[in-house]
Amino acid sequence: MAEPNTTHSLITRIERAAEGHGSVTFLCSAAGNGVLERATWGEVYEEATAMAAGLQARGVEPGSHVAILGPTTRSMITAIEATWLCGAAAVMMPLPMRLASIDEFVRQTRARIVASDAILVVIDGQLVEFLDPQPGDPPIVRLDELIPGYGHNRTARYVRPADDPEALAILQYTSGSTSDPKGVMLPHRAVTANLDAIVRAGRIDPGIDVGVSWLPLYHDMGLIGLLAMPMTTGLDLAISSPQDFLAAPSRWMEWMSAFGGTVTAGPNFSYVLAARSLARMSDLNLAPWRVALNGAEPVDPDAVERFAAAGARHFLDPGAVFPAFGMAEATLAVTFPEPGAGMHVDTVDGRVLEHERYASSSRVGLDNARRMAKLGRPMHNLEIRIVDEQSGSQLGERAVGELEIRGDSVTTGYYRNQLATDAVFHDGWLRTGDLGYLVDGELVVCGRIKDVIILGGRNVYPQDVERAINDVDGVRAGNVIAFGTMSTRGRESLVVVAETKESENAAIRDAIKDAVYGSVGLPPADIVLVQPGTLPKTSSGKLQRSLCKQQYGTGTLLAV
After folding, report:
1. What is the pLDDT of residues 179-211, one digit of tens each?
2. Which residues are paired to 212 by β-bridges?
3. Both 384 and 471 in a single domain?
């Protein structure tokens, strides 16, 4: 195990990691040659100091905010490191998930650039045409203009700033799955505290472990967990882009095997795709894999078990599955399970959970039994508790309430948004907006407060409905949204919107009705089948239930 790092500056940690032998391998579209490109962290550091000199020549200094936009490439990762080496905060701009959302992408990108007070926009050349700069907007510089010897860089010399633990390292915009994105302020001390907690709880050894990532760098799990952590510890990393993974999900498993990957992460849907790939693949060795972190969206125990079963013939240890919980407001990681323990499930009475907001123990096979994934215990220097969201009083074990967090890696607030900051903090605790409960000290998350559907006095969690529909033939798994809407009688009713490629959909509708009834004991009041790729999602791929509900109300869903 590596010695603990006591500095609270990313700059110093990057410098130390550059002195080691760790490397980063760029894969597919992330590589300059489109196949594979390897560099030591020391070589990346040398390139980053040269790029930092170019940034400084353009006015970037400690305290500056730099907006960064582009796909995962060697130069993009170098630009992120260069921004930190300047003492500036990186403001990662999301890429569009779908081509149909280009106009919205252009609007949101400019809005975030302006809201973040970025003094410079660093952009991949192929995306320049998508920006719509207005008078007063910050200047734009292409990544290739920051390479040594270009323009400003010919005579520029890098000047190392002083370490400042309180300076912002990251201005992380939330995904906006339930609200408009807000800028989460993360100073160096918060980021380094969470990185230390990840290394400690995950038992990461940079001299032995190998990370593999395809996660977007504009999402906290990709930027912090699988880039900043290797970059500041010297951990070997193999990295590609989300587009490479989505084009061929089997690549993820191939990379884990080829590079002897031990640590990786992805949302639940990615393990669904991985399980399908593993069933068709051969000649893989996944024996070294020990941390398969599942986070960023609700964890489906059935999907996790199918993934573990599919990996068994490829020597995957079932103890590697690693359901966890995190959020941008806590930098990244909030709870981790014990490494090597695999997934632990709490089986509860679903009816009691819905009617009484209490997780009463049950057994698989009994009526209304519902399996909930345990997400581990709080990270080092973080505390969690469950409270009544109305009174704020702390609740006992198995009582369902709002999750609250406090500790070293919690955000200092939302950038230039004091109202939002005041709304989420009280007495030093951060309100998460998530409903959950504790059992034996471990966290179980039930869903978002804003998404809960009240049906006949029951608290129905939309992900339970969506999970049941995901298995219906003809429905695109992971592309289902359930929400509540007021009926003409003033009661909330259940609406389901699902993507399908099928034109004949009567059988699909019947199967959805049966699946929903089997899950929550009530049929949906309405089922809308829409065209593939049209459900609203955030930049990180999370379903946007509130926006979907709005589109349903205005009749703007693209039905098949």
Report:
1. 567 899 999 999 999 999 999 999 999 999 999
2. 238
3. no
Residue-number span of the structural domain to which 201 is assigned: 10-247
457 in the same domain as 389:
no
Residues in the chain, total: 560
| Domain count within the chain | 3
300 located within any domain: no
Which residues touch 186 (CB under 8 Å, ≥6 apart)? 168, 169, 170, 171, 172, 331, 411, 412
Q: Structure tokens of 146?
A: 């920051």
Instruction: Give the pLDDT confidence score for residue 478 in this predicted structure.
Output: 85
Instruction: Decide which of 422, 450, 478 is a domain's last residue.
Output: 450
**What does the alpha-carbon distance between residue 240 and residue 229 come to, in Å, rounded to a whole number?**
16
Strand-pair partners of 421: none
Q: Is the pTM of this model over 0.70?
A: yes
- The answer on 481 and 538 residing in a single domain is yes
Write the DSSP symbol of residue 27. E
Indicate the residue among 401, 421, 450 that finishes a domain.
Answer: 450
Match 């989300």 to its residue by tokens: 242
pLDDT-based confidence at residue 178 (cuts at 50, 70, 90)? very low
Cα–Cα distance measured from residue 176 to residue 224, given in angstroms and rounded to the nearest whole number: 19
Question: Does residue 51 form part of some domain?
Answer: yes
Q: In b/e form, how buried is each residue of 458-473, taking b as 16+ CB within 10 angstroms?
A: bbbbbbbbbbbbbebe
Residue 6 pairs in a beta bridge with: none
CB atoms within 10 A of CB 180: 11
Here the CATH number for the domain that contains residue 514 is 3.30.300.30
Q: What is the rounded distance in angstroms from the CA atom of residue 309 to the CA atom of residue 325? A: 23
CB 271 within 8 A of CB 307: yes
